[in-house]
Design a protein that fits this description.
The chain has 685 residues and is of the alpha/beta class. It is built from 25 helices and 28 strands. The strands form 7 sheets. Strands 5-4-18-17-16-6-7 form a 7-stranded mixed β-sheet. Strands 24-26-25-28-23-27 form a 6-stranded mixed β-sheet. It has a 5-stranded parallel β-sheet with strand order 10-9-8-12-13. Helix 3 packs parallel to helix 21 and helix 9 runs parallel beside helix 15. The protein binds iron/sulfur cluster. One of its GO terms (molecular function) is 4 iron, 4 sulfur cluster binding.
């Protein structure tokens, strides 16, 4: 029918996948092509980017609202679906109060959309709003906010190339952030920058590394503490920086006295000589830039892992100058922005704590209502609370798929099914939408306008190349309808906007770090935050004279090793998970791309030849991975590129659903679950 006949024009937009933020537009046939964007300056794109229109055209697209009736989903007119959403949530709020509902924002949707999701939650009277950064970098943000006052890349892709050393921890940018790697990191390595790679796998990034430290998952702190010890022992610290910008040196050095470099290296599974070499290279460098990814953040000590890395940068004065810093590599095209604009249970837009009365007043003046003062539940906390007397009973999930992406996934799916009311806004009937009372057909990246914020804080504009198919609607319109219906009648005007530019204007008013940004001036370029009102431009390198929190000094933070939550029993191995070049997150988008599925159609588990031999497993055999939480079967890729004792799979496939195996032990500060270390029994199936 006409509803599946997509016609695309070639307006400039931004790639919907990773946080690099390449400029893409519709090209020939089914393909996307790059334009000379602010990041991909020569118009380069990776295989995911080229395939970016394929999931848009998928026959699975929802084209009408669905409601659940007598055991099945049936199509319904928009008004009926929205009525159900309104009454479903209102009944719960009336009976149990606003804390009984929760909202799930989306790091693959625009700033304007995420801003509206958090505003709806707060208008309803709850701070229960979160996004999937909870699951990827919440620990990074927590540590960086505590130490520096800002939870984003301290530097930019342009200036990190000035570094003499790259220290890449728990990240594989060559495959996960390919254009950033090819365009900014690899050329620097070709020109002599030394790359140190800390990762249990030998992957494409390791291919460019001078030193590889194949750390056992969960042992980053012993490794980084040992590097700190070498740097102090060999007097590679930056005395001037320590004197002028750092506090707590004595206590930190006292804490290092107990650190035994050789013992820590062995505990972390790395060669002590290699560890010393890495520490010397980092400590000796004039400028060293550190990068951090989910291998660091997704542990129940994720916040402390990042503190341990920050200690190295602070000791050596690698903060506040080009070619230095702590640079988290963000996974989704707008995970930075979803957080910046306040889709966080503890923070209003711009990371202003909900507990701060002045910040609440400032929002209240613009919004016409005051946001609630008590921090809300994080997403793992609310799914766990379902069934409790004071737990969450109703939820709206916007463009996310928690039934696949959360740890201990079988229990999460049960919790979502147990909700009294669940509404989902999505492109497809995802594993989560299957459990919903109401499913609203939203718009893909190619059908919307708005801004997204990439990994190095540049705010860029997306432009629609097509209309949503069938009766599907633009997400911003859907959220405005939901907002108008759920808030008090006399606040109806709070959700009247004449398009994304009007929402953007309002969000710059309540988000101090976005204060000077202008939708019009961004045009097809970018503006970077922080861009305080009245400034000439956004700040590239942060923390130059003082830290973002206004302090001249930051404190060194002694941290101790925290053993992983799962004990290894009998001959269990450590399961760690990650991404590959061809797929993206839960795979809801990339599994709907013919090209990407041809490139990599199924998951495999990588295991070391010694571990395979000990279990009578050969390359290509079906193997069962199991633990108390569940069991999955997947074929074996026997390879020495994975460190002994550890097995690796991706989290891109619903079949097999790896997250039935992952544990939900949470970091006490950031509440991020420990995806990167799960004990599993590995045997031939
Ligand atoms: Fe898209 Fe990231 Fe690939 Fe660029 S590097 S094309 S943003 S997936």
């Amino acid at each position: 029918g006409s509803e599946s006949a997509f016609e695309f024009d070639s307006r400039k937009s931004i790639c919907p996948f990773c946080g690099v933020g390449c400029g893409v537009r519709h090209g020939n046939g089914d393909k996307a092509t790059g334009w000379e964007g602010s990041v991909n300056r020569r118009g380069e794109v990776c295989p995911k980017g080229v395939a970016a229109f394929e999931h848009v055209r998928s026959e699975d697209r929802l084209v009408r609202p669905l409601v659940y009736e007598s055991g099945t989903h049936v199509t319904a007119p928009w008004d009926e679906a929205l009525d159900r959403l309104e009454s479903g949530l209102r009944e719960i709020v009336d009976e149990h109060g606003p804390e009984a509902v929760a909202f799930f924002a989306s790091s693959s949707c625009t700033n304007e959309e995420n801003y509206l999701v958090q505003k709806i939650a707060r208008a309803l009277g709850t701070n229960n709003v979160d996004n999937c950064a909870r699951l990827c970098h919440s620990s990074t943000v927590a540590a960086m906010v505590e130490r520096f006052g800002a939870g984003a890349m301290t530097n930019t892709l342009e200036d990190v190339g000035d570094a003499d050393v790259f220290l890449v921890c728990g990240a594989n940018p060559a495959e996960q952030h390919p254009i950033a790697f090819q365009s900014y990191l690899a050329p620097a390595v070709d020109d002599g920058t030394t790359l140190i790679h800390v990762d249990p796998r030998d992957n494409e990034t390791t291919g460019e590394a001078a030193v590889h430290l194949p750390v056992t998952p969960g042992y980053d702190i012993p490794l980084l503490n040992a590097m700190a010890k070498v740097i102090v022992e060999e007097e590679l610290v930056d005395e001037t920086f320590l004197e002028e910008r750092v506090a707590g040196r004595e206590a930190f050095e006292a804490h290092l006295e107990d650190v035994d470099v050789e013992a820590n290296a062995r505990e972390a599974g790395v060669d002590p000589a290699d560890l010393r070499e890495a520490a010397r290279a980092y400590g000796d460098a004039d400028r060293a830039a550190a990068f951090t990814g989910m291998g660091m953040s997704q542990h129940h000590c994720g916040t402390d892992n990042v503190h341990a890395l920050i200690n190295l940068a602070v000791l050596t004065g690698n903060v506040g100058e080009p070619g230095t810093g702590i640079n988290p590599l963000r996974g989704q095209n707008n995970v930075q922005g979803a957080n910046d604009v306040g889709a966080r249970p503890g923070d209003l837009p711009g990371y202003e704590p909900v507990t701060d009365a002045d910040a609440r007043d400032r929002c209240g003046e613009v919004w016409g209502f005051e946001p609630p003062a008590g921090p809300g539940r994080t997403q793992v906390e609310w799914t766990r609370s379902v069934g409790d007397d004071d737990g969450v009973r109703g939820a709206v999930v916007f463009g996310e798929n928690p039934a696949v992406t959360e740890p201990n996934a079988s229990e999460v799916a049960d919790a979502l099914a147990d909700l009294e009311f669940l509404a989902v806004i999505d492109l497809y009937k995802t594993e989560t939408a299957t459990l919903a009372d109401v499913v609203l057909p939203g718009s893909s990246w190619a059908e919307k306008a708005g801004t997204v914020t990439n990994t190095d804080r540049r705010v860029q504009r997306m432009r629609p190349a097509a209309e949503p198919p069938g009766e599907a609607r633009r997400d911003l319109e859907i959220l405005q309808s939901v907002g108008r219906r759920l808030t008090d009648r006399d606040l109806e005007s709070e959700f009247e906007y004449d398009g994304p530019a009007a929402v953007f204007d309002e969000l710059t008013e309540v988000t101090p770090i976005y204060g000077g940004l202008s939708y019009e001036e961004i045009d097809d370029g970018y503006q970077r935050w922080p861009f305080p009102e009245g400034a000439d431009e956004g700040t590239a390198v942060l923390h130059t004279e003082e830290f973002a929190n206004g302090d001249r000094r930051t404190e060194l933070a002694p941290v101790d090793h925290v053993p992983p939550a799962d004990d290894l029993e009998n001959d269990q191995l450590v399961l760690t998970t990650g991404r590959v070049l061809e797929h993206f997150n839960s795979g809801a988008l990339t599994r709907r791309s013919g090209t990407l599925m041809r490139l990599r159609g199924e998951d495999v588990v990588q295991l070391h030849p010694d571990d395979a031999d000990a279990r009578g497993i050969e390359d290509g055999d079906e193997v069962r991975l199991s633990n108390a939480r569940g069991s999955v079967t997947v074929s074996a890729d026997v390879t020495p590129t994975i460190t002994r004792g550890t097995v690796f799979t991706t989290f891109h496939y619903a079949e097999p659903l790896i997250n039935v195996l992952t544990g939900d032990a949470l970091d006490p500060v950031a509440k991020i679950p420990e995806y990167k270390h799960s004990a599993v029994t590995v045997e031939r199936a």
